[in-house]
Specification:
There is one protein chain. The chain is an alpha/beta fold. It has helices at 3-8, 36-44, 58-71, 82-93, 108-119, 133-139, 162-171, 184-187, 221-235, 241-251, 254-273, 292-298, 315-324, 367-378; strands at 75-79, 99-103, 124-128, 144-150, 175-179, 197-201, 215-219, 278-282, 305-310, 329-330, 340-343, 357-361. The chain has a seven-stranded mixed sheet with strand order 1-7-6-5-4-2-3, sandwiched between helices. Strands 8-9-12-11-10 form a five-stranded mixed sheet, covered by helices on one side. The longest helix has 20 residues, at 254-273. It is globular and about 80 Å long. Bound molecules: pyridoxal-5'-phosphate. Pyridoxal-5'-phosphate binds at residues 81-83, 86, 107, 154, 179, 181-182, 201, 203-204, 213, 215.
Length: 384
């Protein structure tokens, strides 16, 4: 199946809705039946027949089919946020008393799920340096049930050797989840590398317009069906049909958005890497990065995110630098059309981190304009 077939055709049965090119938004909570028999049949097969929108909604279903195909997965659930996707996937795989191995510093709310929330249910997590296979090997216990991966990883974009880790996990009967938000399914296909469940914050690259919060869980038909009947129907963290439709619209341009973000990011990384006011750039696709070969092996193209560290640690100069940027908006999140800067010094939980580290997302502006914007703002930092 080509990407364009997935994005333009898959799941769209236009004959069912007046041959409209763009599918309708089925803004209905409820679906009715003409016969008792049909109703009975639907109740027994809520996963495939629309009864109620907390279960299967036809608009959301078109989106789910497309995302499953993009990930090379048998099945997909679309939910109300990336946080919901992570929580449902993780909770499905665990029971009280189980042990989890997770990469150090996952996305902040994933960390809170594994510590604050799941510790309440006597689930323990060991956080390991994901760059080394041995870290996982050493952390395995008889009750380890899940290895949680995020490759690239939040903030410093370290990678894990996904194939090696899933092989190890399979040998020990341990399930794996990978948060694929930073790479997108166009850059990296974790299921092909042996991962059991792939999750995304669809708020980011997949939706890409900074106007919808959503998440996805992809995996085997069997596993996704279990999550549907369990966490999905119980917790009810669904996406609205309106937002599912916006996401279908957004996916039409996914390849050109990712490509532009990726190409511009590489130019901007090259600019920063040679800049006298920059101490270092954190990006696996830099030739000097020890994970460069792994990046080329397991990712089809570089992503449009990186972090960098300034030489100055003077907080007034750091503030002046951030506040004088015109195109880069200062904000959380990422993956939209607009470039962003996230100064890590705004987060109290990063108090142990140097104050001069910035996460950058590259959007769809002309790369020359972004380079000029950075250059202008560097000029407010005095040489010392
Ligand atoms: C944003 C983000 C999440 C959480 O997703 P929401 O859609 O904000 O709930 C999870 N993982 C990563 C890597 C993210 O960037």
């Amino acid at each position: 199946m080509t990407t364009s077939y997935i994005l333009n055709q898959l799941g769209e049965e236009r004959g069912n809705y007046f041959n409209a090119v763009s599918p309708p938004i089925i803004q209905s909570s409820n679906f009715c039946f003409d016969t008792v028999e049909a109703f009975q049949k639907a109740v027994l097969d809520e996963e495939n027949i629309s009864i109620y929108t907390r279960g299967k909604n036809p608009t959301t279903d078109i989106l789910a089919q497309k995302i499953a195909a993009l990930e090379g997965a048998e099945s997909c659930l679309v939910v109300g946020s990336g946080g919901t996707a992570v929580s449902m996937a993780v909770m499905n795989l665990l029971n009280a008393g189980d042990h989890v191995i997770c990469i150090q510093k996952p996305y902040s709310w994933t960390f809170k799920l594994l510590t604050i929330q799941l510790e309440k249910y006597k689930i323990e997590t060991t956080f390991v340096d994901g760059k080394y296979l041995e870290s996982f090997e050493k952390a395995i216990r008889p009750n380890t049930k899940l290895i949680y991966l995020e490759s690239p990883n939040s903030l410093f974009f370290d990678l894990q050797d996904v194939e090696a880790i899933t092989k190890l996990a399979k040998k020990h009967g341990i399930s794996t989840i990978l948060d694929n938000s930073y790479a997108s399914p166009l850059c990296q296909k974790p299921i092909e590398m042996g991962v059991d469940l792939v999750v995304h914050s669809a708020t980011k690259y997949l939706n890409g317009h900074s106007d919808v919060v959503a998440g996805v869980i992809c995996g085997s038909k069997k596993k996704i069906s279990e999550i549907f009947k369990g966490e999905f129907m119980t917790l009810g963290g669904i996406i609205s049909p309106q937002n599912a439709w916006l996401m279908i619209r957004s996916l039409r341009t996914l390849p050109i958005r990712i490509q532009k973000s990726s190409e511009s990011a590489q130019k901007i990384v090259a600019f920063l890497d040679n800049h006298p006011k920059v101490d270092q750039v954190f990006y696996p696709f830099l030739k000097s990065n020890p994970q460069y070969e792994l990046a080329k092996k397991q990712m089809k193209m570089p992503m449009g995110m990186f972090s960098f560290q300034l030489k100055t640690t003077d907080i007034n100069q750091i503030k002046a630098f951030c506040e004088s940027l015109e195109y880069f908006l200062m904000a959380v999140s990422w993956g939209g059309y607009e470039s962003l800067i996230l100064p890590t010094c705004v987060f109290p939980e990063e108090a142990n981190m140097p104050n001069n580290i910035f996460r950058i997302y590259i959007g769809l502006e002309e790369s020359e304009v972004l380079i000029q914007d950075l250059e202008n703002s560097f000029s407010v930092i005095s040489e010392r």
